[in-house]
Amino acid sequence: MSLALQIVLIAVSFFVLLFVLKKIRRSQLYIDDAIYWIVSAFLLLILSIFPQIAIFASELLEIQSPANFVFLFMIFMVLIKLFNLAIELSVQKHRINRLVQKLALMKDEEDHPKD
Amino acid sequence: MAKQLLIVIPAYNEAENIECVVDNLIENYPQYDYVIINDGSRDKTIEICRRKGYRYIDLPINVGLTDGVQTGMMYAYEHGYEYALQFDGDGQHDPSYIAAMLEAMETCDICVGSRFVDQKKPKGLRMLGSNIIQATLRLTTGKKIKDPTSGMRMFNRATMKAMAENADYGPEPDTLAHLMRSGAVVKEVQVEMSERMAGESYLNFSRSIRYMTHMCFSIVFIQWCRKKVALKGGIKK
Fold it and tell me: How far is A8 from B12, CA to CA, in rounded Å?
């Protein structure tokens, strides 16, 4: 892993951390949801400060360059997050539609009380 | 007296057709109750319902056909109806066949108003999709449903409850497959269907292809891993 990549990764992790903390301060992000970003920023930071981890893992998995291991790791993290977001989106859709249904049925009940 | 049948008419931008469909029901079939589910239409559907004094439920935003029909099922179940009929708001379905479907409900949980019980299925690209869905249904449930894509379906209280309470029970062949695998008895009754009276059909060529692949994937890969639903008080096999 080159020094340049290391510096970029460290910078990115710091940037992510700062950005997430700012969003929490402004209440634009729930703490629960922020934890993922903080943890992954830390993991990235550790990976970039200690390139030995990536070197070891890439040898173990027979990946040509340690940088590729870093990318693979990040892709997996993103995929997991993406899938979780898809689930959350489905849940939100379901909740909104349930609310709309209840609202409409309640309105109808008001206009036409059951006999 | 227990209320017998509720006709659930999902309507999304059906201003051109809804009047004709509902007036026909009111004038010629006053023995059946109906309710229009206005699914956040952006045209004059709701104004027409108000002006004509129709019975309607107004969903403030568009929730899609699945949850729209579900709203009707919730309503029918809560109001104690014995049967609920899913009925198109675009004039494709003919209410004169309802009586025969009601009769069939004595011996089944779901009755499908089918175009191809006595009549042969015409050949053509459109029917190819129907045939493929029929084949996947047969593969997964072992039952032959000759018109799986028919949108005219009648449910008894057991299946109505399942439709009302569970998420993602779309009024489509995949739900039919799921309910059949849960033990629902499905029968078909011969009906005639007409082309829609006005407006463009939702299903153009590319949408049809998407619909078909979606259904086949859902029936073959998704429905089998779904938890079977308990159908209390349904028809015993």
Answer: 52
